[in-house]
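ESCALATION

Customer reports they have been waiting on this structure for their group meeting. Please prioritize. Original submission:
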Amino acid sequence: MRTRARVTAAAVVVSTGVLVAQASLILDQSSPTQVPPASFSIAVGGPVSQVVSQTVTAGVSGRLRAVEVPIGCSSGTLILEVRDVDGIGQPGPTLFFSDSYDIADFPPPTTDAFRRIRLRGMPVTFAAGDRFTISLSNPTGECGLWPGPAGDPYAGGMGWADSTDGPIVPLSTGGTDDIPFRTLVQ
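Update from on-call: job pushed to the front of the queue and completed.
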């Protein structure tokens, strides 16, 4: 009887572990793309090494596992960073996650199709209501990011641009306050 109880307990632990490992991702926060055709794309990288960021407010508690953005790259290496948000609402200095990605996974042209960027390694965990920043850069090449619609489609944060030739500023490119994005949480 004791042996059977141990085997059953072990089977429950193994089953639970498998279920956790296979848990599906849920869409937490998002901002839409501009309806095609777009008259421009937002540069990521390029001659001034522009960094494009979006501040986000987590809607559910969980592990941030992926970000989706409508991006296409022609050269270099795409870098995704997840940072804090500073006291005035712009991207902060604390780095939670950083990884580089092969641009072959994000080929041009830049379209309104969202492309998934998985957070590899240690997960970043947020509680509902936490604020964080998604930052995209390409220090050795260039990517294009499809713009969002005019106005402020995502009230939980704001888009930002930062480059070597100037200070960090609100995005507000072409009348949009946000970059198109999706956050996927486990």
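Sent to customer with the following note: The chain has one domain: 25-185.
Escalation resolved.
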